[in-house]
Amino acid sequence: MIDHRPGDLVCTASAGIRLADLNRELASAGQMLALDPPGAERLTLAEIFDGNLAGPLAHRFGEPRDLVLGMRVRLSDGTPVRFGGSVVKNVAGLDLSRVLTGAGGALGAIEEVTVRLHPLPEATCTLVTGAVEDAAIDRLAPACVEYAWPPGQTLVRFASPVAGALARRALAVAGGDLVEDDAALWAEHRERAAGMHRHRCLPADCPQTIERLRAAGATVVVGRLLAGDLWSDAAAPEPAPPSRLEQRVLEAYA
Question: Containing H/E element for 100?
Fold first, then answer.
């Protein structure tokens, strides 16, 4: 079941519907639910919101927790309850829909979700480059900025009516190659994170975290460097040694 009126940027849907099916329906109105986790073709909304699963689009649009407006949930005792609302910025106080998102079903079974939608981009274009200067690239408002090792490259995707022009400006800053027909590139990249371990760190600590993952035996590292969100086939690496300031604090309170 999908409750959506063309032109509205809000949609209510059964949690059992697959994300891919929902987005095919929304595409006829020029809209999308801006989520793209690995395996999106087979995942239901319940699975995505239970796990707070996201992909490269989280760079601009956020994770499921950022897009949910309301939920209908069945509690463990069978009681049906509804949280949140059906319009943007409708919730005052504690937003229980956000609490339930990512809870893995421990607080109740999600039966229906109301979500914020975004317009489908008119065009996309991707810059494939090496290391990028974060501030210079982010000023151009890319939809996705993703790291991929191997081969050790950064993918910067622009999604707007002027995607090509923005990508060429990014090319002038960072160098690299442009890919205009980039759907296959991103479909392949998204799936590289499937089944991987998640590693969170400060964005500034991403280079060191990547090196520790590689030293721990990683053969794949992908993720959002600007958000400090990495995925790898290696388990958690050894923590970085404390800084001089952290060491002094530890010694003072030991």
Answer: helix 96-100
Question: CA angle, corner 53, sides to 162 and 69, nearest 5?
Answer: 75
Cα of 184 vs its chain's centroid, Å: 18
Whole-angstrom CA distances from 162 to 15, 42, 43, 79, 174 are 35, 32, 31, 49, 18
Q: Are residues 74 and 178 in the same domain?
A: no
135 and 224 both lie in a single domain: yes
Does 34 share its domain with 138?
A: no
Statement to judge: residues 129 and 94 lie in one domain: no
Task: Tell me the pLDDT band of 89, cut-offs 50, 70 and 90.
Answer: low
Token pair 């020029």 is found at: 30
* 149-196: pLDDT as tens digits: 999 999 999 999 999 999 999 999 899 999 999 999 999 999 999 999
- Cα 11 from chain centroid? 19
- Same domain for 132 and 92: no
Number of residues that this document lists for the chain: 254
Residues 90 and 151 in one domain: no
